[in-house]
Design goal:
The protein is α+β, with helices and mostly antiparallel strands. About 25% of the residues lie in helices and about 25% in strands. The protein has four helices and nine strands. Strands 1, 3, 5, 6, 8 and 9 form a six-stranded mixed sheet that branches. A three-stranded antiparallel sheet has the order 2-4-7, with no helix packed on it. Strand 8 and strand 9 form a beta hairpin. The longest helix has 21 residues. It is globular and about 45 Å long. It starts with a helix and ends in a 6-residue tail after the last helix. The N terminus is likely disordered.
């Protein structure tokens, strides 16, 4: 815990140094504070962390809903759009449907990486299938011919290709990172029998660093 605290302090000091060099005003200080909170809160499952927002800029994706086909009832899966408390625990081999809340009907993509405690690190580099921790990706496009509640894209993590554990969903728009969300994947059949309330408790557990 002491090492984590020191790392956070170092990150906060870095933000402070950058701000001093750039002669920031109050608005930029607020943006820096948001970034600091994101670093500290990056262990929260099912929370969207919006990045790369300029002052007054609205996020491309304002909410998200995820459906799974193995665990939980319809109430657990068919949640309304949200920015936190989003379904974030799954089993390997479970199909996940993505329902982003966005005015952009094309150009959104989700990339999956092994969990990184610093969620802000994803916006510092160009992401590709060569990026360390990369697992897979999926284009998210709204089909104009489909029903209004149809998913924009779906995938699953194959149990023979990845291990159970914590993963980050990284959302991009036109190849620019717009948000991240930590998730957890369990072995097949480990949580399939759990009730909705038990699954909700799992979603509230902290991410192991």
């Amino acid at each position: 815990m002491k090492r984590i605290a020191l790392s956070i302090i170092a990150v906060l000091a870095l933000f402070s140094t950058v701000n001093c060099k750039n002669g920031t005003n109050g608005a930029n200080d607020v943006k820096a504070n948001i970034a600091q909170v994101q670093v500290q809160d990056s262990t929260v499952l099912g929370k969207l962390y919006f990045v790369n927002l300029k002052e007054g800029e609205k996020p491309v994706m304002t909410g998200l809903s995820l459906f799974g086909d193995r665990c939980g009832t319809g109430d657990f899966n068919h949640k309304p759009y949200a920015t936190e408390g989003i379904r974030s625990v799954f089993e390997l081999n479970e199909w996940i449907e993505f329902h982003p809340q966005s005015n952009a009907k094309t150009g959104i993509k989700v990339m999956v990486f092994k969990h990184n405690a610093d969620q802000g690190s994803y916006q510092k580099n160009t992401l590709s299938d060569k990026t360390p921790g990369y697992i897979q990706e999926c284009e998210l496009n709204k089909d104009p011919e489909a029903e209004e509640d149809a998913h924009w894209g779906s995938f699953y993590l194959h149990p023979e290709e990845v291990e159970p554990g914590f993963y980050d969903f990284v959302f991009l728009y036109n190849n620019k990172v717009i948000a991240t969300m930590p998730t957890r994947f369990y072995p097949e059949n480990q949580i399939i029998e759990k009730s909705d309330s038990e699954l909700e408790k799992l979603m509230k557990q902290p991410v192991n660093q």
